[in-house]
Integrase family protein
Amino acid sequence: MVNPLSEAKTKIESEQAELKVGRFQVFGADRRAKNRQSQTLAIHSKALKAFEKYLPQMFHEIPSCEKYDENWDRFIEGLRSDCKSEDSYRKALIFVLKCIQKGNESGLWQLDLPTIPLEITRTKLPYDGKWFRKNQACTVFYHQWIENIERYGRVNYSAEVLLADVLFSAIFHSGIQTARTLHLFAKAVASRTGLFSDEQQIWIETELNNAPTNFIDRQGELHSHWRFFPALPTLGLLQRWYRNRTLTFSVPNELEGFEYWLNRHIHQYNAPEITTKQLCSYSQLCVQLHPGVFYPQILSHVASDKFISLGLSHPHWHELHQPCVPQGAQINSITKPAATRTRHKGNARIDRHSLFLSKLRNAIQEKSSATQKNTRQNTLKALTALQAELSLTEVEQILLGWLYHCIAVNKNQPSSLRTYLSRGGMQWLNLCYGENIHSWSSEDFVTKYRALLHEDQSSLCLITHENEDEDPESEPKYSSRADYLAKRIVTLHKYGVRHHGLEPLSEGLIDGIREKPHIRAGYISEPLFRYMLNVVACCATFTTREKRKLECIAIIAFRTGLRLGELIKLRVADVEQSDEMWLYVRTTQLDDTKTDSAHRKIPLAVLLTEEELAIVKRYFRFRSHSQTQSAAALMFPSEAGELIPLSDSDVRSPIQDALNACSNQQWTFHHLRHTAISRLQLLLHRDVLELHSGNRLLGQHLLPWDADRCELIYKAIMSGHPRGDYWAFAQFAGHLSPETTLKSYLHFSDWVSASCIRQAQYEWGFKTRHFFSGVSINQLQSLGWEAGALSYTRCFTEIRTGLQRYIKRINCKPQQLPPVAVPKRPKLDLFAMLEILTALANQDDILPLQTHYQITDDVIKPWGHKIDALKQLKTKRTQHRLFHSSRINDLLPGELRSHAEKEEFSDMVKKARKIYRTNQKELVGWIQYQLMHSNTRNHSLPFRDPEQLKVFIATSLKLVPAGRIRIQIRCSPINEKQWTSGLPAQIDIDKFIDNPNASSALVWIKHPDEAGILQRQVIKNEGIQKFKRYSSPVLFYLAYTIALTLFSVEQLQSWSKNNTLSANV
């Protein structure tokens, strides 16, 4: 009888071995199926290893089930720690249970099977008998309160009674479900805090205490902004309160005192067992049972603080209504980020005498001249000039910007800036220089800053003990010094948080007090995004290729919510070539996904507008055609090569700067992800928010799609999800559960909840209508409100008119969306020509390239004539100079193979252009000699004339370093000086001066990685060195390609007729 556990183990090992070889031989859907099978086998293998660890005797040929019950719980704990996600844990556990069941069926053992858990860590919701009884008690209280108003009315009511009624209405009619927010609302109403309104709703703005923060002010301080949208009955009572200025009441400042006060009013309605907290917590059912209300259950959890979903800050909310229109100076304000300078290995720090620090110290020096003290105005001018003069890394920009902020905003003096730089700025720069600080979490910053403070204190302690005048056993006095340094680092970090998107510190550096969590809540409006694209298109420091790449990255991030790391590693093969353009997010060789849940697929085409879809499709066709044969070719490669990804700063900095140039708020690249996910929440609740029927202007700022497109998107992403719409949000975002999505990315839960609640219809008696409508009896009758259901839509205009003295209008401004910038025609440069010729040589369809570069066959045909002319160049033995006879039909010479050569070739092209602009004749002569003396049989370039050698070397030194050139000279001792004089000492020269009749030289260009190649070939050949040098054809390749663009067909044809150089050619 076969043991099912050992059989499964053997079967998994054999299938994994087959997949390891087989999955790389298939592509597309078959490849994805193999990958899924491989992941499943890995989970099953992990499950069996964990089971064998605790119950090894059950894998024997004759298994033993001894201690099965005792070790089962240990196995469960071990498996849970081995599995990274609940999904993999469930799959692993189910597989083990199936194997045990097979043993039960075969009679090998008889073991009880435990229940398979459906959810592992999800918090159980409190919907039990106690919850329903409490909700029933709250509902009874609500009806008693309404009946009391209807029976006795509210005549000559006191301020205290009216305020209590306002609070009860806020609970039962407007959805406040925590005592903390009710207390905050009560204080705002009692002080008659200003109201805000747009065309659709009225709200109150205030701040929460002891809650996650969502706003950073200009000083870097964190705030938790909160808005309350009152429904109809609450609005009517607010009108009575605000308009009667004689009504005043002081709400207790402490929460306990407030609850004690409100409890007295609750107990007046024969409800002694209900407290304020219970009334808030258990009013959900009453709120949802009002006629007309459809309230998503998950949002009721948010309202009761079981889940967290933070709304937008007040400035962000206002800017959604009234987008900022950038001016001309702002449009031209972004620049290309400086190349990232990485830290050397070890503990190397930034040079204290670097150019940046030297100029920075000069800008904030004590005296502007020998007799004149430096002023704030001169310092400001010097810092501004320094920022424009140097190309700075982001870390240097943060330090410089902080010092500028201190003197411009905080009004510090230059002497203070010098202290700040020496006691905080330099230490911070040493710590962060060359690091990717955007990848550091809040805890990472705290750990590194504390280590920096500890290092500073240790050095001070050592100095103190070395002082002979001090007592070695005395306590060193460095606490005030550490406090000062910590304060400077904290203020510098706050500036980086506010203006460069760094993560806020999670706790204090000295006191260790835990800070409130911060959520970067933000939503980029459609006008802002469109202006941002225009700013990128107008940036003069980017090439057309770079602009197209950034534009496409921004569009995909804005519509799909992909993380920056997921975008950078996106491959051409990850976008499906179909009408839907399914985009697959999966693990690649560059990086793993953030979690297992991050593996997902997104319907790209349906999320894009028509203009955006045309842009993305055009770029995708271009990349699909120009990619290499590698399946790992990137969608957005760097200029260094098809497989080399962009750095984070290459993408983050320009897009972030463009966003900030178009807005009064501070944005980060990650806000694109926040916007894409929050947009789906708006799409789901578009009807109740009336985005297409009510406030159309606001709807245009928030959604780019019409109702029909919204329905298509809903079906593509959310329709049919087995666990509901908000689980579909989580899957779209790459999250395990909706809790993460709600907490960090859905910023309209407060608005959606209020909109759902205010759909209620109220059929009340006359006295109740009169009280909650907030109008007089005569107005009630003249408006016809004494009959028919009262609703928010019916009464909003009249109530807003009554409150207009206390309302600040935030009306949406009609904002004409700027058109997507039409990209300029891509420059048809040398690289474009090589790309097209390579495609022709591979017999590929060049139509996408012709469309991309907007050229016709008439432009391409002359290139073929020039290539034919160059092929006519022959040696004295009538052998082809530039192409071997076996490759005579090729269009280009041998392609540069290594990444180092390709990167070097790009730099050489820039240097050659510089030579052409300054001395055209020099470059022409250099190219002619290179092509008319090359030989396909040898990589060396021959010379018979010493002067010609020196002229050629002089030009070559402008293209490659002298150490890369190798010259072999054969001459007599008499001519040695004639050949070697004037050559740089760094050139590698081999001299053979034993032949009196010799007078020649050969020139090679060393391969950039010659030493590594030679070392590897020795190892490969078991210690035998087959060749002593390894040269590169990069100069020959450069001369050939430039000749195709620089010379006419007639000039190239004349070369083959002449055996000597002609200066007139």
In short: DSSP finds 46 helices and 14 strands in the chain. The chain has five domains: 4-106, 132-311+752-809, 375-500, 526-747, 856-1055.
